[in-house]
Structure formats: C-alpha cells, structure tokens
C-alpha cells in the first residue's frame, strides 16, 4: 500500500484535510597586554594631573577661563562618549569537532578590529587537525584570529591519531567525523581505496567542501544530504561515482558533466536555477525537486525510470523520450499541459497543483497511483485505469466520479470537491477514504469491510451505518446533518477515534452513543 492512514492525524485544519524548523572562558572582551594597560593608566593619570594644575591656575585668575575650561572638558567628554559608541561589536561563531576543546568554548563577541585568542586542548589520543575561518593562525596550543572586521565562523577539527582521517590529513570537520564513524562501523582497518560507499549526513558536523573526497579514489556511492554545501560544486574530482545524493544543501550550481557513470542523482531541496544532465545517459533515477528551475532538458536521459521535478517553476516539461519511465512527479509547478502518451509504462504519476484544466490518462493502463489534485477538474475518465491502488483527486470541481473500474483501489482522497453522490460498491479493498467537504447526503459503506479510515466531515449526510466496517481506526464525520448512526458497536478496536460531533442526533441515538462511551468502553467517542 502506498499510504499510511496515520498521516491524517496532523493534516486536518478546521475539519479539512490538507495534503497535500579578554581572558576567561566567559569573558568576551578581547585579550590585551597587561603592560600596555598599565602604561595607558599611567599616561592617563599624568594627563589628569596636568589638567588639574592648569585648571587651578585658571580658576584663580579668571572665572570666565574656568567656564571655558568646563565647557572644553564637557565637550571632550561628549566626544569620548560618542567615539566609544561608534565601535561596533561583532561575533565569532564556533564549530568544534569531537576530540578536543576550546577556551572560550562558546560563541564570542569582539570589538571590530580586534583579534581573539583561543586556547585548545586535544583529548588523549587526538590532535588538532585544522582551524579554518576568521583568518585564524595556529601556534603551539593557541588559535588567534586576524583582526575581526565582520561576523565570521571558526571551525576547529580534531582527529584521532593514526585514524584514516589522520593518515589522509583530512581537515574538514564533517568529513573527519564521517570517516571516523565509517571506521567504527567497519570494526576493522580501513584504507582510502577500500571505501566504495560513503554517507555523511550529520547536520551538526557537516561537510563544507568535497575537495578532500578526491583522496577516496574508489568512491562510487556518495550521500552528502543535509550538509552546508553552497555555491557551485564541481564533482568531476569523483569520476567513478554511480550514485550521488546532495539534497538539502544550499547549492546554486552543480557540475556533473564528467560523472557519466551516474545512475542515480538526487539534488533536490537546493537553490538550483539551472542544471545540465545531458551527459548522464546512464541515469535511471533523477530528483531535482524543490529548487528554482524554470526549465530542464531530460531528452538524453532515455533510461530514466524515476523522475521527480516537483516544486519548481516549470511552465513546460517534455518527457516524450522517456519511454521506460515508471514514476513521474511533476507536481507543484506551473504546467498547463503534460504529454504522457509515450510514457505508457508509468505506474505512478503525480501532476497535482498545476494549471491544467483537463487530464487524459486512459492510455496509462499500468497506473497504480495517480495524483491530479487542485487542477480545477470537472471530469476525468478512469475507465481504463483498472490497476489503480491510490487515487488523489482532491481540491477539484467534480460533481460526480465513476470508480466502477477501480476494483483494486485502496486509497481515495476526494475531499474539497462538489460531489453529490459516490458509488463505492465496487471498491471493496478500500482502507482509506477521505471525502471531507463535499455535498454527499448518502454514503453506502456496506461493501467496504477492510476500511480503516473514514473522513466525511462537512457534508450533508443524514445517516451512517458502519456495521460492516469492523476494522475502523478513525471515523471522523462531524458537521453533517445526521439524525442517526448505527453499527458503531461492531468496531473491534475500542481505542478507535470516533468523532461524530455537531450533528442532529435524536434522543434515542444519543442514549445509544452514551452507552457505547460509558458502558462498552469506546473511550475516544465524541458526539
């Protein structure tokens, strides 16, 4: 089955299902020389003494001179205060890998133009691998930044002495952590050439650059999902890659033109505005979802079986060359049309939330999952789609829906349409049925013996019989006009959630429901 009924828990808002985050450790003052400070104090004291002497002389000579001096001192104080307020405070953000500690250990504020000194101590068996950012320089057991003129980030990495990361002289905090974990999982000695598959997905110790990965000369499968890769990244340094996942980063451009062995590429959830996959003729799976693409050319990728181009800015998409395609997700774009006549092998098709007002799927006889949500459809012919298991057709303008050919259907979401009636007698395998916000007055559930989830709120139902629906786990049908309901006692799971509130039940029905709640133990019944 393609869908878990429990996802409905968090998807209902207002009764409508929506499908569709210087010195000590705590001293932030920049470190200064004690001798320099003493010299300053001495100089200041001398100046004050001199001014006092002059002032005394002036006062005895003339009150006006005293007034002038007072005015001058006041002006000087004002200028000093103004000068002090001009100095800006900047921050140094710290990222420290395992295997050692820094002091100060937390993010530090410094006055613009000042340097900051950190001391570090490596744990037993570890050593400092690198200190990058803020113009930092390492000397003995200290790390000193350059004069700080803007907010900056300091990344400090420690490495286990003798580890693979140490042998390869890796400096990237995230990659050190990733290789250490790989060695720990392997529970044996690891060499650079023995690593074929590597997964680095630690958001707290992220990989910031792929440069050092070139030292892993046999790498074929790489996942860097959820790291901090940004800007333009050229993957030509990894020519043996067959699988690459760089999703959930901040990439604006990726160069994979030399990675001609790739069969799987996932670059979803980045900031890509363009991508060239023309050289990747071996690709079978491609995901570019949640980017900012306005166009994509997949005409050379004729071996694709799975393509996810959802949540971009596409106005057109040509998939006619992809005759082997089994799974296509082009949802949430600005497509006005999509020609799938050549994609007759399709089993899953999602083109919901586009600008198409008419859809033809009769030629897709192998479809098992279809999403045509929110497309202003008033009609759809599903007579040839007899293999459908999942149908998401919500948020359209359908008055009627013929599902007599869908005998394999398990999941139906048809909420927020204008359905007046719906015949489900042929859909005996239904487990999840979402019909919220329609105009149904009658709903025959007598053939749906496998039904687990029913949402039928905000309709015009007058009654409901669930005697045949013993497997129900969720029954949500408030905001109707029901005067009667029956069969609730047949529900096997007494912890099932049953909400039939805001209806017009008669007193005998209310008594029946009260008995179910207080006597028979249906504790999650609300009416």
Structural topology:
Layout: E1 12-13, E2 16-17, H1 34-61, H2 63-86, E3 89-96, E4 100-103, E5 108-111, E6 117-122, E7 126-132, E8 137-139, E9 142-144, E10 152-160, H3 164-167, H4 173-186, E11 197-199, E12 221-223, E13 230-234, E14 243-245, E15 250-255, E16 264-266, E17 285-287, E18 306-308, E19 327-329, E20 348-350, E21 369-371, E22 390-392, E23 411-413, E24 432-434, E25 453-455, E26 463-465, E27 474-476, E28 484-486, E29 497-499, H5 507-518, E30 525-526
Parallel strand pairs: 3-10, 11-12, 12-14, 13-15, 14-16, 16-17, 17-18, 18-19, 19-20, 20-21, 21-22, 22-23, 23-24, 24-25, 25-27, 26-28, 27-29, 29-30
Antiparallel strand pairs: 1-2, 3-5, 4-6, 6-9, 7-10, 8-9
Helix pairs in contact: 1-2
Strand order of the largest sheet: 11-12-14-16-17-18-19-20-21-22-23-24-25-27-29-30
Rounded to the nearest angstrom, the distance between the terminal CA atoms is 31 Å
Low-confidence parts, pLDDT < 50 over ≥5 residues? 1-85
Structural class: alpha/beta
Percent in helix: 10-25%
Shape: globular
What does this structure look like?
With 527 residues, the protein is an alpha/beta fold. It has helices at residues 34-61, 63-86, 164-167, 173-186, 507-518, and strands spanning 12-13, 16-17, 89-96, 100-103, 108-111, 117-122, 126-132, 137-139, 142-144, 152-160, 197-199, 221-223, 230-234, 243-245, 250-255, 264-266, 285-287, 306-308, 327-329, 348-350, 369-371, 390-392, 411-413, 432-434, 453-455, 463-465, 474-476, 484-486, 497-499, 525-526. The chain is built from five helices and 30 strands. The protein has a 16-stranded parallel sheet with strand order 11-12-14-16-17-18-19-20-21-22-23-24-25-27-29-30. It has a four-stranded mixed sheet with strand order 5-3-10-7, covered by helices on one side. A four-stranded antiparallel sheet has the order 4-6-9-8, with no helix packed on it. Helix 5 links the parallel strand 29 and strand 30. The two termini are 31 Å apart.
